[in-house]
Design brief:
alpha/beta, two-stranded parallel ribbon, EcKL, four-stranded mixed beta sheet, Kinase-like_dom_sf
Length: 259
């Protein structure tokens, strides 16, 4: 199951809304900073969508025009790479918050399809996760080697714990800062101590409303090995929040993250 990537093949409308959001933010930031800002720097280059052993990632199609890239990482990111990416994510999130506050923009109103639209008939699945599962069933139904995975998907319910990196109320403006990664959901397959295959889903559409910087959680739990994570977790948090507050200061948002 290592290094398997699949596309959901849906949600062109959300990609368009996210593209409009990034273009608006990029133009505002460039003017505010009197030049190219962090959005232009990291959005074309950052590659947080990684595949490591025992998991694969569902990703949106047609995101290459936004500059996103897919990386397959065999060993995981190094400590140095984690700190660089964590800082950039924090700076990106801080820029989003500054944009919201200074322009008095309600992101849900201005870019509604960037946000989770819950289905009336299911409180357990988001539209994205459910649609992704349905698509996988269609694509994999004829693959005998994938039958066990389809069985797991059939009975799994996407009830996920809220990730908390640091105390953060799920209120504006912090909790709705769009995360830098455009993935609607990730499915992880891991072997437990008995050697059985278990299933874990993180629904990023829902996580956009959860507490804490979800990209940092994703980076530390997926993009790095256990050994690296243990060494670098606190430093990565510090790098994230330093980048976050640096953006707020540089853009004169008159805010700081309440750590």
């Amino acid at each position: 199951m290592a290094n398997v990537l699949t596309s959901e093949g849906m949600h062109h409308a959300e990609v368009d809304h996210y593209g409009r959001f990034l273009r608006a933010l990029r133009a505002w930031e460039a003017e505010r900073r009197s030049g190219v800002g962090v959005i232009a720097e990291i959005v074309p280059a950052h590659a947080l969508a990684v595949s490591t052993e025992n998991h694969f990632t569902l990703v949106l199609p047609d995101i290459t025009h936004l500059g996103y890239q897919m990386n397959t990482v065999e060993e995981g990111m190094s400590e140095e790479q984690v700190l660089v990416v964590a800082s950039k994510i924090g700076n990106f999130h801080g820029t989003v918050v500054a944009y919201k506050v200074i322009t008095d923009t309600n992101l849900q109103t201005a870019f509604p399809r960037c946000f989770h639209q819950p289905r009336v008939d299911s409180q357990l699945f988001s539209v994205f996760a459910k649609a992704g599962f349905d698509r996988l069933r269609q694509e994999w139904s004829g693959e005998a080697r994938l039958s066990r995975i389809l069985e797991l998907l059939e009975t799994y319910e996407a009830i996920t714990d809220v990730f908390v990196v640091s105390s953060l109320k799920p209120l504006e403006p912090f909790a709705t800062a769009l995360h830098g990664d455009l993935q609607p959901s990730n499915i992880f397959f891991k072997h437990n101590s008995q050697g059985q295959l278990t299933l874990k889903l993180i629904d990023w559409a829902t996580a956009r409303y959860s507490q804490g910087p979800v990209d940092l959680v994703y980076l530390l739990n997926v993009g790095v090995s256990t050994q690296v994570r243990r060494k670098v977790t606190q430093a990565a948090k510090d790098a994230y929040f330093d980048g976050f507050n640096a953006a707020l200061t540089e853009l004169n948002a008159n805010l700081s993250y309440p750590r």
